[in-house]
Amino acid sequence: MLKIFKITAILEGISFLVLMINMLVIKTNNPELYHTIVRPFGIGHGVLFIGYVLLAIFLKNAQNWNFKVFGIILGASLVPFGTFYIEKKYLKEAV
């Protein structure tokens, strides 16, 4: 399950960055592209975010994460590039 969490963390980070680029660059230049580009990425990112949080909750006891580490892992999903940091620091052993 740790490998699935690692993949989800990477995909969630990528979807977050793609969503931000779409919102900041494409939407400001072409507001009519909202339904064709921003909305599908938003839905995908939402699904990945929920999966990331649920997998973190399931893995908390299995990986013996204390409350501080668990808080860092959950908080990283709210920051750009945060899930990439978690993947490098806490998920090294997942192959």
UniProtKB/TrEMBL annotation:
Q: What is its main location?
A: membrane
Q: How does it sit in the membrane?
A: Multi-pass membrane protein
The record's annotation in Pfam families points to:
DUF3817
- Please provide, in alphabetical order, the Gene Ontology terms of the cellular component aspect for this entry: plasma membrane
Where would I find the DUF3817 domain in this sequence?
2-90
Q: Which UniProt keywords apply?
A: Cell membrane, Membrane, Transmembrane, Transmembrane helix
Residue intervals passing through the bilayer: 6-25, 37-59, 65-86
Where can this protein be found? Cell membrane
**Does the UniProt entry include the keyword Coiled coil?**
no
Q: What is this protein called?
A: DUF3817 domain-containing protein
Q: Which NCBIfam families match?
A: integ_memb_HG
